[in-house]
């Protein structure tokens, strides 16, 4: 018969065991965090408008107003802000939550008071030269109305907006009146009826 010689194994120190347990705890916490954030983003993108807006409100740089409009300053502007009495000259791109583009324009003059409430509120936050991203909840957009176009009822509207310029509506109306009067006085120089 052969005999087995026992080789004593030194016990593992408490410090090493503590480090192993801490390392395991960190790995488990990281896995839970990855699962949570990955799942919350997926749920937000495919979930209800409320789920999406709740998730979006927690994203870096996103601010939410008392009305529920969400916005992010992509580039700060300078100077004053437009009011309901102004016409804003903007560049914009409007999309749905899934990225479908429903409207865009490089130079659109829009009366601030005559657009959907969320868009108007967003414009009044901006300064000339600024660029914002707006997330407009249905209640501040078209609600449950069927627009007859590319915007389904109860849609969250996402806009990237550059505020190029704004002027008072009254000034714009005076400029248009002057142009009309010039047109009635014989047209432009070099044109038939012109000077």
UniProtKB/TrEMBL annotation:
<keyword id="KW-0413">Isomerase</keyword>
<dbReference type="Pfam" id="PF00254">
    <property type="entry name" value="FKBP_C"/>
</dbReference>
<keyword id="KW-1133">Transmembrane helix</keyword>
<feature type="domain" description="PPIase FKBP-type">
    <location>
        <begin position="85"/>
        <end position="167"/>
    </location>
</feature>
<comment type="similarity">
    <text>Belongs to the FKBP-type PPIase family.</text>
</comment>
<dbReference type="InterPro" id="IPR000774">
    <property type="entry name" value="PPIase_FKBP_N"/>
</dbReference>
<feature type="transmembrane region" description="Helical">
    <location>
        <begin position="20"/>
        <end position="44"/>
    </location>
</feature>
<dbReference type="InterPro" id="IPR001179">
    <property type="entry name" value="PPIase_FKBP_dom"/>
</dbReference>
<protein>
    <recommendedName>
        <fullName>Peptidyl-prolyl cis-trans isomerase</fullName>
        <ecNumber>5.2.1.8</ecNumber>
    </recommendedName>
</protein>
<dbReference type="Pfam" id="PF01346">
    <property type="entry name" value="FKBP_N"/>
</dbReference>
<keyword id="KW-0812">Transmembrane</keyword>
<keyword id="KW-0472">Membrane</keyword>
<dbReference type="GO" id="GO:0003755">
    <property type="term" value="F:peptidyl-prolyl cis-trans isomerase activity"/>
</dbReference>
<keyword id="KW-0697">Rotamase</keyword>
<dbReference type="InterPro" id="IPR046357">
    <property type="entry name" value="PPIase_dom_sf"/>
</dbReference>
